[in-house]
Amino acid sequence: MSIFIGLLIIMVGAFCQSSSYVPINKIKYWSWESYWIVQGVFAWLVFPLLGAMLAIPEGKGVGDLFALYAASPRDTLLTMLFGALWGVGGLTFGLSMRYLGVALGQSLALGTCAGLGTILTPVFTGNTGDLTMPVIVGVVVTLVGIGIIGLAGHMKSQSLSEEEKKEAIKDFNFSKGIAVALLAGFMSACFSIGLGFGSELKFAETAPIYSTLPATLLVTLGGLVVNAVYCFYQNGKNKTWGDYKQGELWPGNLMFCALAGVLWYSQFFGLSLGKGFLESSPVLLTFSWCILMALNVTFSNVWGIILKEWKGCNGKTIAVLVVGLAVLIVSSFLPQLL
Fold this sequence. Notes:
The chain is mostly helical. It contains 13 helices and no strands. The protein has helices at residues 2-19, 21-24, 32-54, 62-71, 73-125, 133-159, 162-168, 174-188, 190-197, 213-238, 250-276, 282-306, 315-337.
């Protein structure tokens, strides 16, 4: 029963993450770099800090959290370093959806992230014993599902006219989007590696459901620094500093940025809580990253359908998409059955 609860919590987090780009579409008159960094402050600083505070035992304070980091400088620095590398993936992740849409962009980027994050984390942290056959089989099946969805995207690209593509996704560019999505997936896998290096950054008294939240804060902080540097550079290059001076836009835009931020962070909050219920299954603990990414892909395609990004595709293309989604759903619990 605890395993079911853990998977359900991760599923809810994945749904929230996949929904996080919907509020962004409601932001008015701000350039990409302006709204990206504002929502990033919520997604990568405010809510991760609040989450990490839940991991602080009774009788201790925020100062003790930073003392915990200072006591393990190597793990702290490596966790933030891989967070910075993940930050590069976060930048290109947004571009992948710009060129491919929410559904296909997230599918390819998160699919690459799922496989590499699950495999490379034990390799980098020296815990290769976690790469059991059920875990490897689960990763392979997940990548097969991603590949099928990618095929559906290619079929979509071939079947629609340029006008239809632009109608569904304004800046649709299949070849450029594929390259950006694969890069985003590769760099985004560094989030999982960062969590691996930060696995010991926790208080002994902390409940298992909150134990990864201090490390999550360090990873997102590393990503925030990279994204802030890039976005502020773009503000200067594109002369969009004026976005922040439009006082009348702040109430609405700030609300949607905050909503996007909390929805995005929910995936890792849910991952931490969910893993607390999976401790009886070492296989699912190792595979939990892949489960989260696979569910993110599944729900992002559901949103893609709702947002009519697959509008105009023939029945064969939709059938291939559905098969890919079914394979992803199966992959989420397959390792537990092996």
